[in-house]
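Handoff note, outgoing to incoming analyst
You'll be picking up this chain. Sequence as last confirmed:
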Amino acid sequence: EQCRLRTPHANPELLNAATICHSHPVKWFDAGMRLSAFTYFYLWTELNKSPVTLDRVARSFGIAERTLRRHLVDEGNPFRTMLDDIRKSMCDLYKLENKRALAEVAELLGYGELSAFTRAYRRWYGEPPSKGWQSAATSTRG
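Most recent structure output, in case you need it:
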């Protein structure tokens, strides 16, 4: 239910983008794909703390890593794909927010090195993050 509540003081553009990000896991939960939904929200909240691994997620749920992996694949949401999708979605929000340096974003997305974030960003957008961040800054100022 908390995923459906509006926050009256939030930036409307960021709130809308975050609502779109969370729409799939809310639908998964409603469709009975609870492990996918719980894994999504766990990753979303724990990404910046320490390396998020499938084993750590499974232990926090009280199930075996192999069992969680199998359920996520059966539900159409393999762990690595979900992790990458969440990182990209969060990156989109940080770009929209336009208040953080690239190194901070890399850390918040759970990358140990800026170079790993740069490779992922290039894969997602086809350009280096420095160029994407410049265009985001220009579009919000202009």
